[in-house]
Design a protein that fits this description.
The chain has 246 residues and is α/β, with parallel strands linked by helices. The protein contains seven helices and seven strands. It has one domain: Rossmann fold.
Length: 246
């Protein structure tokens, strides 16, 4: 499906990002696997997909909150792959704590990664795509951006709500050649949720019509569809994928 296409995936060494990378590679897409802390996991993923799917893949360490490192990531990607067809803005951070313990510095850290980093990389890649008259950008948002569930994640919720707005603005800015959409998952089985107790997870499952927690593959399936030719007429949308959560 994606033979001879090239993608950058941020935060791709684990969780949702890793599954997206694996799925795109299985469909013939060449990859830039961005990571910040998990170098070993990024290397393992890179070698596995290169050997199994015979695609070109490279890892690159970059802190998405750092504007210079984002620029380095873009330049590295162009140098290695020449053109970028897909950008998956997956890197994100969530720091749960009591509402009254939250400070402005917590908001700043969250927004630098979840919003400003997406803007900085998308600005560079989007301009490149528009010049090439082709491209797909997917932002990984959250259903928290639409329905607030717990004030303990107030900064995360606000950053993802802002990301939804950024998605729609980028769809306008890069039109008509670049599609920009956001995927908004609910609960997903990732390391971000590994510290939650079984009781909490059971409670959350009961609030989901499908009666199960989502998997990274569920999200990757949607991302793959949105960057495919079959989704050519979907643009500027925020698509919730949470199993029906109430």
């Amino acid at each position: 499906m994606f033979k001879n296409k090239n993608a950058i995936i941020t935060g791709a060494s684990r969780g949702i990002g890793r599954e997206i990378a694996y799925q795109l590679a299985s469909k013939g897409c060449n990859l830039i696997i961005n990571y910040n802390n998990s170098e070993k996991k990024a290397l393992e993923l890179c070698e596995e997909i290169k050997n199994k799917f015979k695609i070109n893949a490279y890892i690159f360490k970059a802190d998405i909150s750092d504007e210079k490192e984002v620029e380095n990531l873009f330049n590295f990607s162009i140098n290695k792959l020449n053109k970028i067809d897909f950008l998956i803005n997956n890197a994100g951070i969530c720091m749960d704590m009591e509402f009254n313990d939250r400070t402005v510095s917590h908001f700043e850290k969250t927004f630098k990664i979840n919003l400003f980093g997406v803007f900085n990389l998308s600005r560079l890649v989007g301009r490149h795509m528009k010049n090439n008259k082709y491209g797909k950008i997917i932002n990984i948002s959250s259903n928290n951006s639409i329905n607030c569930f717990y004030p303990t994640s107030v900064d995360y919720d606000a950053s993802k709500a802002a990301l939804n707005s950024l998605t729609k603005n980028m769809a306008i800015e890069f039109s008509p050649y670049v599609n920009v959409n956001a995927v908004a998952p609910g609960w997903v089985e990732t390391e971000m949720n590994k510290d939650l107790t079984p009781d909490i997870m059971e409670y959350e499952k009961e609030r989901i019509l499908k009666k199960r927690i989502g998997t990274p593959k569920d999200v990757a399936n949607l991302v793959s569809f949105l960057i495919s030719d079959e989704a050519e007429y979907i643009n500027g949308e925020i698509i919730v994928i949470d199993g029906g959560m109430f």
